[in-house]
Write a structure and sequence with these properties.
mainly alpha, elongated
Length: 83
């Protein structure tokens, strides 16, 4: 493989990992906010149940977009290299 393709794929990988950590940090900030507010067990249970319902509609699509774009760009770079 050419050096340019390898560098591109490494940068693409780093961007995908960075996007994953960005999503993780958002969730971590929410957790710190909840800890600072000092919630009761009932409030924590309610929030946990709401999170289970909403996480599939918010977190999974974000991850799908990040990795879909990464895979498409990697395949495009590979196709460009093969041509």
């Amino acid at each position: 493989m050419s050096t340019g393709l390898i560098v591109f794929l490494v940068v693409l990988f780093i961007a995908a990992v960075g996007g994953t950590f960005f999503a993780f940090r958002q969730e971590e900030k929410k957790m710190k906010k909840y800890e600072e507010e000092g919630e009761t067990h009932e409030e924590e249970l309610k929030r946990s149940l709401e999170y289970e319902k909403s996480s599939l509609s918010s977190n999974v699509p974000t991850q799908l977009w990040i990795y879909s774009v990464t895979i498409i760009l990697a395949l495009a770079a590979l196709a460009f290299y093969l041509l």
